[in-house]
Amino acid sequence: MNAFGGRSAVFVDDREFMEETLDNVLRIYCTHNMPNWSLPWQRLKQEQSTSTGFVIDGRRIITNAHAVEYSTMIQVRRRGCDRKFQASRYAVGEECDLAILTVEDEEFWEGAAPLAFGELPELTDDVSVIGYPVGGECISITAGVVSRVEMTVYAQAEKELLSIQIDAAINPGNSGGPVVNDDGEVVGVAFQSLDGSDVENIGYVVPVNVLEHFLEDVRRHDGKYLGFPRLGITHQHLESPALRGSLRMSPQQTGVMITGVQPTCPAVNVLRKGDVIMKVDGIRVANDGSIPFRAGERVALKYYMSQLFPEDKTEVELLRDDSVMSVTVPLYVSDFLCPVHFGGRAPSYFVLGGLVFTVMSAPYLEHEIEEGAGGLAHLLSTAEHGVRASNDEDIVILTQVLAHEVNVGYEGFSNMQLLSFNGERVKSLKHLVRLADANRQEFLRFELFRDRLIVLEAAGVPDATTQICKDNSIPSPRSSDLVFDAANSRTTASAVAGDEMVVPPASREEEEEEVEDPQRQPHSAGVNGGKPPRQPSIPGTVVPVRRKPGGRAGEGGTAARRAEPRRGAGKERGARLRSAVAAAGASAVALGGLRIEGRDFLPRLRTGAKRRSRGGGGESGERKQRTISWRGG
């Protein structure tokens, strides 16, 4: 056994060195204030959670993004210390589920030493997971072995990046903790685990190279995280000889065929549907879409892309119309038509005559599924298959109608996509607000999906909106990001009524704004440390299991999220709607690596598995849940 509990023949005899490592692994206490997706002008009751973090150079602390999501207060405590120190978020990478925290108090840094980074571990290497999981107050060390190094979907933001699979348990509270090798060097960050009755002790680690990519991204862009880039294409494997023959490929040529190019990415000017990508920066692409990784190992092409940065370009050798050519393709960071998260921002909303509009997002759809809402098929299909036609495009939905005499007859309308306003196609929620502010017509016509139509008399809308907001305790008829300037904050009241007025022009910034196996994807540890749902077992079938983020452990609340990658490989599968459950739960709940007490809140889970709520050690409940998967733009 080595100093960290490993089984390798390599020993760390220096007890002091081990103690120094443990002293710089921190317990993180976080208070979360989650949005109310159904009533976007409100927040839910505050919830508390605990997780793990560790000190790195530059007086920074690394943890999981899901551990500090929607935080209102973050505190950290070092091992053996009786005091908690206030911390703040410096940078957050939702895709890789990583976050950087800082502490201003000089006393905290006295005696602190950054943990050193090691290399990406090999298969069968011994590793140790260090953290503060549920089950006690003291630091915990769990030994394990590297089982796989491959592309995995990170449950926090449904991004596929390189990950390390280990056979050590990652329990609620472990999220954000360092995973070290026999020399005490950090080789990754604990973040999620695979859950199901047929599996045990399968944990996932953000590799050190993904962590390094995150840190370099933040360094390059003055403290701002931009994300992991991609080409912006969809492609099909060319393992069929007939398909390759139809493309006039020689036996020596291999690659993948482009089936679509994202309209908003730079590649749209260079690549075409039907092109065959044979090499990227000189790296040969196989017919199954893989590229060489390490000796005896291959990974998906997107692994290579994920090692680059948004401002980079790549040389692509392709086959087009029987000709081989080389083109330079700028990379970009994808932005899904249906957002998987808002980066800590509250959702936007607009109330007009009792009609409540917001932007379609994964959290909103999860909430509606959880509430048993019907009529979501079109929205889910749009979330799965929709593609942005422009960078400022959103799917605007009518969430509900707050009853008032001005909107009589429409009270039952809900969860419908808004297509146009007064005959003009609505491109985004901001666009709708501008159209409403500039209205000069007698009636307001809202054309919805399935040829539904809402018509309001413009003259009665301003007073009705004011009264409706008062009756429903809505502080403002629009979210703060939709109040364009002081003059416009009153425009709806006069413009909708048809009064003559001058609409201020948009600012320059506003004008510029103007298929893999889904059953093998991870689920995040959510706000209650819960596990992923599982479908009923049917004889003769394989029951899918889910991965959950290794989460935070909570005290008197609910909260949890996912993990971070380094510059590792991302095979970004488009986002998948996770199943959400919000029901009163007895005792403490364990979700992904996050332990929380009270309400059971499960944010981004995967379809399939059965979720068990655990309080401390024993099970406190079990229930099935529905999940939906989708890809957005």
TrEMBL record:
Top-rank taxon: Eukaryota
Keywords (A to Z) from UniProt: Hydrolase, Protease, Serine protease, Virulence
Pfam families in UniProt: PDZ_2, PDZ_3, Trypsin_2
Keyword Protease: yes
BP-aspect Gene Ontology terms: proteolysis
Keyword Transmembrane helix in annotation: no
Compositionally skewed regions (Basic and acidic residues) per UniProt: 561-575
Residues in Protease Do-like PDZ domain copies: 339-481
Region named Disordered: 495-576, 605-633
Residue ranges occupied by any PDZ domain in the UniProt entry: 231-331
GO molecular function: serine-type endopeptidase activity
Family of the protein in this entry: Belongs to the peptidase S1C family.
Protein name, UniProt field: Protease Do-like PDZ domain-containing protein
